[in-house]
């Protein structure tokens, strides 16, 4: 009973997050300029991170938490580097 | 999946659904808005309240089923809520810089022009400048 509730709500949540990733990837592919693509990549990272947290709840192990943490850190570093590249034309000055 | 109480399953399921729906709404807004400066507002719905709901669900599930308080998801929450404004502000400034450098009509040319336009639109009478 309770595991059924948890199973189905987690499944629906993961499908919704997958749709969110599809929308972000659409903007990343179609975006007219470079800043739109970077914004799409950032939203894509966040949706993937939340999806891994939900995978961790479903499996019942906390290994996925570290994966989500690494994805969050790498998303931040990547977005900052790309924005700085747009601003200055180089990443490390 | 081990046996867990029903109330915990309902709360965790609701929180994860709320977080997923908010993130989906943010990404749909990202895909559908017209200009970049409207688009940059939308995905923060997923990084603020979507992350809060999903990570709260994870904290609740592991705290009750693991028989101990598991709060290391708070690290992700703090990190995401600190870094998102930084990245969005850097990205918006970069986009503003690029639009101004190319002279696009969507942004005012400089901060002084923006102030003059705002003042000209006001009802307050401006001192007439010498011709």
Automatic annotation (TrEMBL), chain A:
Segments crossing the lipid bilayer: 6-26, 38-57, 63-87
Membrane topology: Multi-pass membrane protein
CC per GO annotation: plasma membrane
Record carries keyword Ion transport: yes
Keyword annotations of the record: Antiport, Cell membrane, Ion transport, Membrane, Transmembrane, Transmembrane helix, Transport
Keyword Transport in record: yes
Residue ranges that the Swiss-Prot or TrEMBL entry lists as coiled coil: none
Main location per the UniProt record: membrane
Any single Pfam family the record assigns to this protein: MrpF_PhaF
GO molecular function list: sodium:proton antiporter activity
Record localization: Cell membrane
Family, similarity comment: Belongs to the CPA3 antiporters (TC 2.A.63) subunit F family.
Name assigned to this protein: Monovalent cation/H+ antiporter subunit F
Organism, as annotated: Devosia epidermidihirudinis
Automatic annotation (TrEMBL), chain B:
Signal peptide (residue range): none
Transmembrane segments: 6-30, 42-62, 74-92
Superkingdom: Bacteria
Record's keyword terms, sorted: Membrane, Transmembrane, Transmembrane helix
Pfam families: PhaG_MnhG_YufB
Matching InterPro entries: PhaG_MnhG_YufB (IPR005133)
GO molecular function annotation: sodium:proton antiporter activity
Name of the protein described by the UniProt record: Monovalent cation/H+ antiporter subunit G
Organism: Devosia epidermidihirudinis
Lineage: Bacteria, Pseudomonadati, Pseudomonadota, Alphaproteobacteria, Hyphomicrobiales
